[in-house]
Amino acid sequence: LMRNVFKNVYGIETETLINENADYTAIKDAVERLAADVKGKEVYVYYSGHGFPKNDAPAIVPYNIPRSFRQEYLISLPWIVEEFKKGGARRVVVLVD
Predict the structure, then answer these.
(1) Is the pLDDT of residue 61 over 80?
(2) What is the pLDDT of residues 35-50, one digit of tens each?
(3) DSSP letter string, the chain
(4) Residues 24, 13: Cα–Cα separation, whole Å
(5) What is the rounded distance in angstroms from the CA atom of residue 6 to the CA atom of residue 10?
(6) Within 13 Å of residue 67, how many CA atoms lie on the same side as its CB?
(7) 48, 63, 70, 78 from 66: Cα distances, Å
(8) Is the dihedral of CA 34, 42, 90, 75 positive or negative?
(9) How far apart, in whole angstroms, are the C-alpha atoms of residue 97 and residue 73?
């Protein structure tokens, strides 16, 4: 898993959300909570899953998105980057597959 690469190769602690733990609320909460403690740090976000555009920007599809697939349940990658920048991150790297 990618978290093992971050931890074992680079010595970077990770927070991992997988399957039912990667729902809309959990992802938003994790980003907001972690962004509060990134001043001067490099931040790496790795996402493996489905994506879909939201307002012409790339977005991730949380685990629990309703079948109606309404855009308000998508989480835009620019929002994630901006949250970490507002928290003072020195650099934000987003990796998706």
Answers:
(1) yes
(2) 999 999 999 999 999 9
(3) -HHHIIIIIH--------GGGS-HHHHHHHHHHHHTT-TT-EEEEEE-S-EEEETTEEEE--TT--TT--GGGSEEHHHHHHHHHHTT-SEEEEEE-
(4) 22
(5) 5
(6) 0
(7) 19, 9, 7, 22
(8) negative
(9) 20
Residue carrying structure tokens 């109606």: 68
Tokens matching residue 63: 């685990």
pTM of this prediction?
0.91
Which residue type does 94 have? Answer: V
Q: Which residue is it, tokens 């987003």?
A: 94
User: What's the rounded mean pLDDT across residues 69-76?
Assistant: 89
Query: For residue 90, what are its two tokens?
Result: 């020195």
Q: What's the CA gap between 50 and 63, in Å, rounded?
A: 9
Q: Tokens at residue 53, please?
A: 């555009």
The pair of structure tokens assigned to 84 is 């970490």
